[in-house]
Design brief:
mainly beta, Beta-galactosidase, Chain A, domain 5, 7-stranded antiparallel sheet, 2 helices, 20 strands
Amino acid sequence: MNGKISNPWQVRLAEEITVRGKRCILVKNGALEFLFNADNALDVVWARYKGVNVSFLSKNGLNDGKRDFFGNFEGGFLYTCGTDNVSSCVKGRPVHGSMHYKAAEKVCTYEENGDVFVCGEVRDAALFGKNIAVKRRFCVSENSLTVSDTVKNEGFTDGEYVLLYHFNYGYPFLDEGLEMTVPAKKSEPLTKIAKKRAAEMYKITAPADGGEEDVYYHYMEKGEIRLYSAKLGIGAEMTYDTADFPVTLEWKSMISGDYALGIEPSFTRFDDFRMRKIASGNEDEHKITIKFLG
């Protein structure tokens, strides 16, 4: 108990709201604010820290998902790719997979020891086919977000799945001079333009009109990536298990109007696409934490 607080909403809340027809959950705790989209896999639409927007939201905004990928992609702070595809690796499947387009079920929120939890379940299933359940739990503390996903094969035969966690940073957190600390033991440019600009893979520049995105594969010494804005005095530190996510992609778009930085722990490369086997009845756990600094 805290005699200084009349109503818990003074310091934290988890409130169901509707945004552009989508079921959402607005969570505030301390200096953090997140908007979770229950109609899109409980992915995170935006992240704000100390009132500053940290996330990238594309010009598409929240939408019905009925256009092609480039007309649908909202960005958001977290866009979960899977469980059947990442990028455009498998023809005939949605780019970045179908998980983001599935509504979460069994959505609930609760508070415990000063933290706010948002939970739900997303299912990838088919008649006479797979039955993969992703049980999601997000923990929002006063200065961190922890994503904990439990993937269970609820089918009666062995299956497979793939995941890539597409975290997207945007203005004003993303701006010229943003410092990136990436302890990579090896890095590989994905595209021709990225090869030409590889010497500046960690440099955030001013936006340029037109041009192309850069994409890199990073193989990490440890799963710990730090972003820091000296201009704003805030930062974000992502931590995860590199045994679980053996490759991390960096998506850097210094394009006017599409100014974004994606940090993407992944099971797989795009050009050597591999899904992960999961036996009937088995569960796998995956966890990523973002601690906000300053």
